[in-house]
Amino acid sequence: MDWFVYMVKGSDDSLYTGISPNVEKRVDLHNRGLGAKSLRGKRPVILVYKEKFKNRSEASKREGEIKNFS
Fold first, then answer.
1. Which of 27, 37, 58, 69 is the most buried (most CB within 10 A)?
2. 20 near 4, Cβ under 8 Å?
3. pLDDT of res. 17
């Protein structure tokens, strides 16, 4: 199953990075207040980036790399 690293931009211009096998569904959950708690006051969020991987492990490693960017 393919997994994706994705990045969304909140209404306050903050960025959030996560992983999911279904990015569109995950973004919808964030926008309905059912995703990450850190995004609940920053709706609506807009998808600004996604990158495809062969498995969850690879996606998770990439997510860690992105979150360590300055």
1. 27
2. yes
3. 98
